[in-house]
Design brief:
This protein is of the alpha/beta class and 269 residues long. It has 14 helices and seven strands. Strands 3-2-4-1-5-6-7 form a seven-stranded mixed sheet, with helices on both faces. The C terminus is likely disordered.
Length: 269
């Protein structure tokens, strides 16, 4: 599989994040790059959720979405793979090995990612409770550690930085990936009818906002206090994830620098 993909795509970008960390907005910013012609959206999703009628990881990678009809003429044949940390699971090492440049980790204040996931589940009529591994933060910490200890190049992109200065951050990301940044990556046409999930159909509240958007939107949402989360395991987990987030903001491999660097500890209570 790896050899076949690398023979077909001169550039393979691997972007991984916890859910609700602006990763699809980041992906849309790369869709318009002339060097990125194909997009594989969360190829491990159907396998993780054990959906027998879903698209397998192998099929998702072999038959990614063609972007030219959505974003215009392409000069390259690059592939963008976007995956969620907990869905990648034990396949992360294999996924990271596909990258022709640094693995990109998208992160966001965990109070925002977890509260956003709960809000989406509420909108979809699902229970607000879910396994803690599905916050994505445990897998994220393990995957960053794997890269650091196995000499796998990676970069950290915080959603606050990306959304505060999209042109600066996307240009820096493209530079690390060997792509030429273009201003066209900063805006796009709404695609509210586009289906991204490999197993869900119909209205999908996970992507309603980003597919209806016209570009990367500034970070105007309020950060909820820890006391907004139910006391017990979830609140403790979010507090732990805040420490992981802070460590990642201090990582020298972070792209975007000062836009959000010290904001976490100032209001973590």
């Amino acid at each position: 599989m790896a050899r076949d993909l690398k023979e077909r795509h001169e550039t393979i970008v691997v972007a991984v994040s916890p859910p609700r960390a602006s990763s699809t907005a980041f992906a849309r910013g790369l869709w318009a790059n002339p060097g990125i012609a194909h997009y594989a959206h969360e190829p491990n999703e159907a396998t993780y959720f054990a959906k027998p009628n879903g698209i397998s990881c192998a099929d998702a990678l072999r038959s990614p979405m063609a972007l030219e009809a959505l974003t215009g003429t392409k000069t390259g044949n690059g592939l963008l793979i976007k995956e969620i940390t907990f869905q990648a699971g034990q396949d992360f090492a294999e996924l990271a090995a596909l990258a022709t440049g640094p693995v990109i980790f998208l992160v966001r204040d965990p109070r925002l990612t977890v509260s956003s996931r709960r809000n989406v589940r509420r909108a979809q009529g699902e229970s607000l409770d879910f396994p803690l591994d599905q916050t994505g933060w445990t897998a994220l910490a393990e995957q960053v550690r794997y890269c650091a200890t196995h000499d796998v190049d990676y970069r950290i992109v915080d959603a606050h930085d990306l959304r505060s200065a999209p042109s600066t951050v996307l240009a820096a990301v493209c530079d690390r990936l060997g792509l030429d940044f273009e201003d066209a990556q900063l805006s796009w046409s709404p695609r509210p009818q586009l289906t991204l999930s490999n197993h869900r159909s119909g209205p999908d509240h996970f992507f309603t906002r980003v597919l209806a958007s016209r570009g990367i939107e500034p970070p105007t949402e309020a950060v909820p206090p820890l006391t907004d989360f139910p006391a017990g395991e979830l609140r403790d987990h979010v507090a732990w994830a805040l420490d992981v987030h802070q460590e990642l903001l201090s990582d020298p491999r972070r792209i975007g620098g000062s836009a959000g660097k010290d904001r976490c500890r100032a209001d973590c209570q």
